[in-house]
Amino acid sequence: MNNSNAPIPALLCNPTFLLGATKQSHMPEDIGAEVAFAGRSNVGKSSAINCIMNRRKLARTSKTPGRTQEINFFELSDSARIVDLPGYGFAKVPLKVRQQWEQSILEYLGNRESLTGLVLLMDSRHPLTDLDQQMIAWCKDNAIRTHLLLTKCDKLSRNKAAQSLFKVTNTVVDQSENFSVQLFSSLKGNGLNKIREVITDWLV
Description:
Blueprint: E1 16-21, E2 33-39, H1 45-52, E3 71-77, E4 80-84, H2 95-111, E5 115-123, H3 130-141, E6 146-151, H4 158-171, E7 179-183, H5 192-203
Parallel strand pairs: 2-4, 2-5, 5-6, 6-7
Antiparallel strand pairs: 1-3, 3-4
C-alpha cells in the first residue's frame, strides 16, 4: 500500500469504526483525545485515512465526491479516536444540505473538548482555494492546532511539489505557530511516516 519501511505506530494498528453522527447529541462522549480530518470533498481524504491506518476500507471512498454526510468516529484505544469530517464544497450537493454539513463541521471543531488537532487536507496541485482559506482563517481565529496535508503530490514533479509546499509554508505556516505543513501521497506513501508521527503525538 505504501513505500514506507517504518513500522506503523502501535496506537494506529487497530482502528475500528465506532459510529457516524449528524449532530452533537449523537457523538461519543467528549472525553479522551481526537484528531479530526477535514478537506474539500475531492481531496482524497478517505484514501489518506486508509493509507495512514494501513487499512484499505476503513474510511469509505467514493467516486462521487460529497457522499459522506456523517461525522465518522474511529476508535484507536479507550481514550483515542480519529474523526472523518464531511468533505466540504462539492457543488452538486444541494445548497441546503451542503450548508448543514459545513455547519456541523464548524460546530464540531468549535465545541469538541477532546479535539487535540486538525489535519486539513488540500490538493497539492491547487492548494489554498477560497474554501480552504476560509477554513484556515477559522482555525486561526479559534486557535485550533492544524497540520496541512498537501495530497496527491505524486502527480507533481519534484520542483512543482516544492513550489506548492513553499507557497503554503509562506502563506500560512510562517504566519501562525499553530500550523504545520507537509507533502503527502496515498498512492506512493510519500510523507506517511511524518503524518503518523503528528497524529500519534497529538493523541498521547
